[in-house]
Amino acid sequence: MHVDIVPVGDVPAPITRAASAGLRSVYDCDATLHDARALPDDAYDEGRGQYRAEAFIELAGRVGAAEKNIALTTQDLFYRRRNYVFGLAYLSGNGSVVSTYRLQTPADGGRSERTEDDVFNERVRKEVVHEIGHTLGLEHCDDDQCVMNFSPTVREVDVKRQRLCGDCQQVVD
Fold it and tell me: What is the mean pLDDT of residues 93-105?
């Protein structure tokens, strides 16, 4: 499998490196970095002060050159009635998105031994692996340790592991 990482807006290199490392370690895939793209003009909702996640998925799917494409952004995203999302993907689609905006909180689920940068980079890896998992046909998993577990808060992201559980791994093998 080949995944194209599409930075949207100003995305620092450590974020794209973390995304690439997460994808390679879990899916053993080729991950390439696409040229950065501007924020989609029609994606910003002034009333919410956030961007529509779907616009980033569409952009990734349109400009990405791989079978799976993921947009990375530092902007705050929402989807429909949800206040925010860390990421979004369509089941078995080719585009997805991860936002780092709300992953930057210093709380790490009680694992204060690590640096904030280490915690943040791990969150990025987990969310990228999670969203690409959806594009591979994986739904949310009931195993709270599986990277495919639904995690609407940073604390829940911190609790899960960066890898797939055995059941989810069998689906993608």
Answer: 95
Residue 32: name the closest of 72, 65, 78 by CA. Answer: 65
Q: Are 26 and 34 in contact (CB under 8 A)?
A: no
* Cβ(18)–Cβ(7) below 8 Å: no
Supply the pLDDT for residue 87: 98
Residue in the structure block whose two tokens are 């956030």: 50
Q: Is the pLDDT of residue 113 over 80?
A: no
Cβ-contact 130, 87 below 8 angstroms: yes
CB 34 within 8 A of CB 56: no
Q: Higher-confidence residue: 108 or 50?
A: 50
Specify the residue for token string 């340790």: 145
Beta-carbon contacts of 26 under 8 Å, excluding residues fewer than 6 positions away, are 129, 147, 162, 163, 164
Phi, psi at 79, each rounded to 5°: -140, 120
- Average of per-residue pLDDT across 52-77: 97
Do 131 and 121 touch, CB atoms closer than 8 A?
no
> Which residues are part of the catalytic machinery?
131
What count of residues does the chain have?
Answer: 173
